[in-house]
Design brief:
With about 110 residues, the chain is mainly beta. It has a single domain, classed as Roll (Archaeosine Trna-guanine Transglycosylase, Chain: A, domain 4), CATH 2.30.130. About 5% of the residues lie in helices and about 30% in strands. The chain contains one helix and nine strands; from the N terminus they run βββββββββα. Strands 1-2-5-8 form a four-stranded antiparallel beta sheet, with no helix packed on it. It has a three-stranded antiparallel beta sheet with strand order 6-7-9, with no helix packed on it. It has a two-stranded antiparallel ribbon with strand order 3-4. A hairpin with a 2-residue loop joins strand 3 and strand 4. The termini are far apart. The C terminus is likely disordered.
Length: about 110
């Protein structure tokens, strides 16, 4: 029986890999030609940096840009709203947008 994948680089252009299941700190990861040990637990779907990346780096997932780093991220570091600004929707307005939207009126 083969071991299930811990992470997946969806597209060769991606500079993140995605956790395919919850993973615990200390798990050894190999993805996108690099390897690292997780510094902390991560949840299913977490995006992990495939290199040490400086603030201002354009981030790619599915081979498409998803945002720009607002802070440096180490190899294997967690990439999410605390250090990634969306190129499509201002991160700080997402919650406000959802709370102020009457979804029942959408057709």
């Amino acid at each position: 029986m083969t071991k299930p994948l811990d992470v997946l680089q969806i597209h060769p252009k991606d500079n993140v890999c995605v956790a395919t299941r919850a993973l615990v700190a200390g798990t050894q990861i190999a993805c996108g030609g690099v390897s690292f040990k997780l510094a902390h637990d991560v949840a299913l779907g977490a995006k992990l940096a495939l290199a040490a990346l400086p603030s201002g780096t354009n981030m790619f997932k599915f081979g498409e840009p998803i945002g720009t780093l607002t802070a440096p991220v180490p190899l294997g570091g967690y990439v999410h709203t605390q250090n990634l600004e969306s190129d499509y929707l201002h991160t700080h307005t997402r919650g406000e947008f959802v709370q102020n939207t009457d979804a029942k009126s959408w057709k």
